């Protein structure tokens, strides 16, 4: 769990200071009203002179300012919390990808990241067979049957793998696209070569689209999953050479 930052602490201190000022101003306003009511009961006529009325108006104005500042600080706190959560998710994803030297486990970790952090519902992960120039589905999520193999350069999936550039659908409206058209296709690149793709057709119900953090997570997976797979394959070859 991330530790509270200095910025978060300073915001909390500011909120407490604002609350104290608010309490003091409210107390002063109460005393002014008591003075006014007492004088009116004694004389039978309103006794609020211009000076007291001006103080009341000033206090009301300052209270409104404090309410506005308090709302702004609450919004800032929420933004800081979201940023901390995003940073934490990126750190966790990167750490998990490099935590295993087993290729199958790396693929399971990528799948978990897609579900737990990105919010993928219908998706598939394909790895490239460079000799046959075919993408083969190795894992995924969802109930819709997706193609097991895709020729390099064929359709959205094959074109992204061949070009090495991510594809994002501009609109996510389910009625505005064919169910076969993916929301996103992310190439997995090792140095200058494509080793596969991640294709996403549908997000979980609570997701209306990809957030900036989702884009960062997908970029992180695209960068680090191939490295983790390469390390796993090298480890397996090393074990085989040693007879382990």
Radius of gyration: 30 Å
CATH architecture label of the largest domain: 2-Layer Sandwich
Write the CATH fold name of the largest domain. Answer: Beta-Lactamase
* Biggest sheet character: 6 strands, antiparallel
Instruction: Please state the average pLDDT score.
Output: 79
Strand content: 15-25%
- Secondary-structure-derived class: alpha+beta
Helical content stands at 55-70%
Care to count the β-strands? 6
The stretches of 5 or more residues where confidence is low (pLDDT under 50) are none
Key features of this structure:
6 strands; single chain; six-stranded antiparallel sheet; 244 residues; Beta-Lactamase; elongated; alpha+beta
Description of the molecule:
The structure is a single chain. This protein has two domains: 6-94; 101-242, 2-Layer Sandwich (Beta-Lactamase). The chain contains five helices and six strands. It has helices at residues 6-43, 50-97, 103-118, 155-163, 212-242, and strands spanning 120-129, 134-141, 149-151, 167-168, 184-190, 193-203. Helix 1 runs antiparallel to helix 2, helix 2 packs parallel to helix 5 (212-242) and helix 3 packs antiparallel against helix 5 (212-242).
């Amino acid at each position: 769990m991330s530790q509270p930052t200095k910025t978060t602490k300073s915001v909390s201190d500011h909120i407490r200071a604002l609350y104290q000022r608010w309490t003091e101003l409210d107390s002063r306003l109460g005393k002014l009203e008591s003075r006014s009511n007492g004088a009116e009961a004694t004389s039978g006529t309103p006794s609020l002179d211009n000076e007291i009325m001006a103080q009341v108006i000033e206090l009301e104005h300052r209270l409104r300012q404090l309410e506005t500042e308090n709302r702004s600080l609450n919004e800032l706190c929420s933004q800081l919390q979201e940023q901390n959560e995003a940073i934490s998710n990126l750190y966790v994803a990167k750490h998990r990808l490099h935590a295993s030297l087993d290729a199958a486990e790396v693929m399971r970790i990528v799948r978990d990241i897609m579900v737990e952090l990105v919010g993928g519902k219908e998706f598939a992960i394909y790895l490239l067979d460079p000799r046959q120039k075919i993408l083969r589905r190795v894992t995924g999520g969802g109930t819709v049957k997706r193609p097991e193999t895709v020729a390099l350069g064929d359709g959205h999936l094959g074109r992204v793998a061949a070009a090495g550039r991510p594809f994002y659908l501009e609109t996510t409206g389910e009625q505005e696209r064919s169910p076969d058209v993916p929301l996103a296709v992310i190439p997995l690149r090792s140095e200058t070569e494509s080793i596969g793709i991640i294709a996403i057709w549908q997000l979980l119900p609570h997701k209306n689209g990809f957030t900036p953090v989702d884009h960062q997570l997908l970029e992180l997976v695209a960068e680090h999953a191939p490295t983790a797979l390469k390390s796993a394959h090298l480890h397996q070859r090393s074990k085989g050479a040693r007879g382990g």
